[in-house]
Amino acid sequence: MPDLLEIENLRISFQKGSVVNDVSYSVRQGEIVGIVGESGSGKSMHALSIMRLLPTGGRINGGAIRFRGKNLLGLESEEMRQVRGRQIAMIFQDPISSLNPVYSVGFQLTEMLRRHLGMGRVQAIARAAELLTLVGIPDARQRLNNYPHQMSGGMRQRVMIAMSIACNPDLIIADEPTTALDVTIQAQIIELIKRLRREFNLTVIWISHDLGVIAGLAETVNVMYAGHIVERGPVHAIYKNPHHPYTVGLLGSMPRLDQRTNEKLVSIPGRPPEVINLPGCVFAPRCLHADQKCRAEMPPVTQLDVAHQVRCWHWSRVAAGN
Amino acid sequence: MEQPKTLVDIRSLKKYFPITRGIVFSRKIGDIRAVDGISFKIFEGETLGLVGESGSGKTTVGRTLLRLQEPTDGEIIVRGEDFLRVGGSRLKKMRRSMQMIFQDPHASLNPRMRVEDIVGEPLRIQGGLSGKDVRRRVAKLLELVGLTTETMERYPHEFSGGQRQRIGIARALALNPSLIVCDEAIASLDVSIQAQIVNLLEELQDRLGLTYLFIAHDLSMVRHISDRIAVMYLGKMMELANRDEIYNAPLHPYTRALISAVPVPDPDVEATRQRIVLEGDIPSPASPPKGCVFSTRCPMAKDKCFSLVPEYREARPGHYVACHFA
Lengths: 322, 326
What we know:
Number of strands of chain A: 12
Distance between the termini of chain B: 27 Å
Order of helices and strands of chain A: EEEHEEHEHHHHHEHEHEEHHHEEH
Strand order of the largest sheet of chain B: 6-7-8-3-9-10-12-11
Low-confidence stretches of chain B: none
Strand content of chain B: 15-25%
Strand order of the largest sheet of chain A: 6-7-8-3-9-10-12-11
Mean pLDDT of chain A: 90
Largest interface: A-B, 45 and 44 residues
Strand content of chain A: 15-25%
Oligomer: heterodimer
Radius of gyration of chain A: 21 Å
C-alpha cells in the first residue's frame, strides 16, 4: 500500500529565488509528522503547496505531491477544490484571520458541511453543534450563533479544528496552530489533538518552530532549514541522537524548563539566509564544521538507518561530538 | 550571604483603565483592572523574571514602573526616593537610570532615522553630548552589542530582527542605566536568534552590573535567565520566589499548571509527564472573579476561594504566595 502522502523533490520559487528545494518525504496513514524550522525555512510554503494555495508569485518548479497515489500538481482547479477541506484540511496559525468576521461560526461550519457533504440545513446545524462539542466547546448550540470576535483565541482555534475535521479528511495540515496562544491554552489544544487522533485515527502534519511541542506529539520529525530538509527521522533519533549541526544547534539554543544549568546557551552564529542562491550546503555559512567541500557542494541525503536521514558531509563528526 | 540591596520597591501598585460609553458625553462605566495592587522588590544586579499569560498585566507593570503610564495608585520607590512624587528636572534625571527594550524591533525603531540618530538620541536629549562625542559613544555602544560601526549610517529596514533588537539594546544602554525592563524582548525572534540575544543580555549584565526586569511568557527562557521569578495572573501577583524554588517547589496551583503546560524538547519526558490542563480561558480584567482571581480555573478551589481574596504573604523566607491553601 502506498503512503498516504508522498512528496518527491518538490521545488518552489518566487521571483527573488527559490524557497523550497528538493524536499522529499512521505506521511503514513495515522501518523503525526512534525516539521520544525525557523522563519524562512520553507515549512509553511511547502505546506501551502500541498493544498495548491501558494501566494501569487510562487511557482512550483518541479517534483510531485502524490496523495493516495494521485499527483495533486496535475489536477484541474475544480478537482483540487474537491480535495481541499474534504480530503486534506488545513489549520492556520491565526484563527482570527482565517475565520470570516462577518459570518457566525455556525454559518461557516454549516457552509462546508452543505457544500462538501451535501447535508441539508437542519442536519448541518445538528452536525456543527456536534463538532463543537467534540472539540470541547460548551453550549455548542448557542455558540453557533457567535461571531469570531465574540470568542477567545483558544475558542477560535477550537472552531478551526472543528472545521478541519468536519468532512473527515484523510490528512490535516496544522501550520503553527498554537503559536498565537498562551501556554495553558496551547496545552488544551495539544491534548485535544491527541484525543481526536486516538478517536479518529487522524493523520497530521504539524508545523512548528517549537521543538517542545513537536517532541510530545510527532512520531517522525523533519528538520527544515533554508528550503531543505536537513535531517529527518523518528522523534527519538532526532532529539537524542541528532546528526546535523543545525539540529544540534537548535536543541542547544532552547533552554529546558526541567533542567537548569548555569552554562550559556549554545547559539548558532549568524542568521538564516533569505533566499538560497549560493552553491554548497545551505547551512555552511553558520556551521562550525564547514570546510571547503561544504561551501562547494550541497551534501546528498545519507541514509543512516531505515528511517533516519541526514544531509551533511560531516554527519559522523557531528554525531560523535554530542 | 549579604542582604541584597533594593533597587526598586513597588508597593500596592494599581493601574486601572477606564471603560467609557458615549462619544460626546462619555461617562465611565467601569474599569479594566490591568494591575490590581501588587507589591514586590527588585534587587540590585539581579534579573527578576515576570511571567504570565496575555491579559495578566505584566506589560502594564513594566510600563507603569517607568512612568510611561501613570499608575492609578501605589508607590514606586527607587533607591529610597519616591518616583511617583518627583517631577520636572528630577524626573528627567531619574528616568536616565531606567530604560526599556521593547518586544517588536520593527515598531520600536523609527524607520526614517539612521542607526546613529536612533542610538544617539538619548545622548543628545539626556546626556548633553553633541557632534563628535555622540558619534564616538554610539560607535562604542554598537560594538558592545555586537554590531560594526559601519551600521551607523544605515536605516532600520536594512537589518534583520535580531540585529534590530541589538540596536534597541544599544539605545537602552546609551545612558548607563541601572535597570532595564525587557518587555518580551525576544518573543518575536527565531529560536537560534533568541539564544544569541539572551547570551548578549547576560554578558552585558556581567560587564555593566545591570538589573533586569525580564517580562516574558516563555517560561523556559525565563528560568534560564532569571534569579527570581514572579508569576502574575489577571492583574495580581500569584507567587514570587527564587527560580529553582518556583520550578522545584511551586506553592500556587496556577504556577504548577503553568509549568506543567510548557512542552519540553525531549520525547521521553513528554511521553511520561502528567499534564495539568486548566479548563477555560483567563477571565476579563473588566469583571474579575470575586475572591481569588484564579478560582474559576483552579482545580483545587473550595468555597472560601470564591468569596475571600487570599492574602499575598511570605510563606517561606523569600517565597511569596497568594493562595489560601499554600
